[in-house]
Design goal:
InterPro entries: FAD-dep_OxRdtase (IPR006076), FAD/NAD-bd_sf (IPR036188), Rieske_2Fe-2S (IPR017941), Rieske_2Fe-2S_sf (IPR036922). About 30% of the residues lie in helices and about 30% in strands. The protein is built from ten helices and 21 strands.
Amino acid sequence: MNSLWTETARIPGRNPLPGNRRTEVVVIGAGMAGILTAFYLQRHHIHVVVLEADRIGSGQTGYTSAKITSQHNLIYGKLVKTVGEETARLYGKANQLAVEEYGKLIRRYGIQCHYEEKDAYLYSVQESEKLLKEAECARRLGLPATFERETKLPFPVFGAVRFSGQAQFHPLEFLRDISSGLTVYERTRVLKVQGHEVITNRGVVKADKVVFATHYPFINVPGFYFTKMYQEKSYVMEIGPVPSIDGMYLGVDSKSYSFRNAGDKLLLGYGSHRTGSIPKENPYIAMEQTAKHLYPDVEVLGKWSAQDCMTLDGIPYIGTYSVLKPDWYVATGFGKWGMSTSMAAAKILSMQILGKRTPYDEVFTPRRHHIRASAKTLVSHSLKSVKGLSGGVLKGAVNCPHLGCRLVWNRYDKRWECPCHGSSFEINGKISSNPAQQSIPFID
């Protein structure tokens, strides 16, 4: 399925890696996080090479809702309780600075990417208490939060948390311009990494530092990211024409929707489930019914799905890949907030690679251990993984080439999905989402 972004932006193609190369830093993955990391390193006169298995922005960046916001659902009250107020404050500050940095870059370089400053809202049609608490908590942490009783949504709400000074844009138009001066090799699949050597299907790149910006890390050991991350799937429908709702909205109730305009179109988001745990309800039918109810004359213009990497404590992993690999770096686990977190990750990693510390290093370090914040999710993730691995030994199972879990057929997206770690494959077995690195044989 194509998205609004992939249908309306054309990024000029780049050549594959022409053989063995030597560089200071190699970035694996040409999505938003990888390109921005390379961009900031190059601004500091570091020689960088970016390797991409497909095309620039062809992964999850092309299927995002493209909201640039530090409002990450009802996260701040949770963070204060589980990891402490100072960590929550730094998390919010890193993401709010990321929001502001996009605006600075876009203005400085004159990037034409349909950038618009928009307020972000969390809304509920059932209650207001938890929204009041979240607004108070976020404001105490220094974020631009207020509680509102009314919105421009086409239905009444009990209340909303409003973050002012947020933004939305066309992510691939932004990537097209910001990547124009970078050395990017497309259609160059990384097969493995051994120390300072990145081995691809086109040659070997030797580098002092290696950055994994591949959505989900594909190197299992060291790091063991497959034990502390899973993936969730959500769905988007493009409808139009629709009047402006003057903001970006996310519902916090069960089975609620997200809304954001794109010109006279509306992106309607719905559904969130662990990849490989297929819901009984068809999310696209549910979205179309809601769209017709709210806007009777609307036309469905497109639909697609996105996958997001979820960490056990809700905080991304940004920093050194493992204590055993001090020259490897990683940016992953962005949840549903990849745009702001990609920018935060790029700023943090570029400073670390330059040998400088930031106030946010300990907040996002992959070496952290937040037992209180992680315990419940860890048990659930472990049980799902064990079930998937057990199913992989059954006769006739279609197995994931990552760790052998039994794949599940998503009848709504017409894809095979791994319920353990979220790899997905087209109907013909072609890989469409990692951590798996290989396709599966053709399936009848």
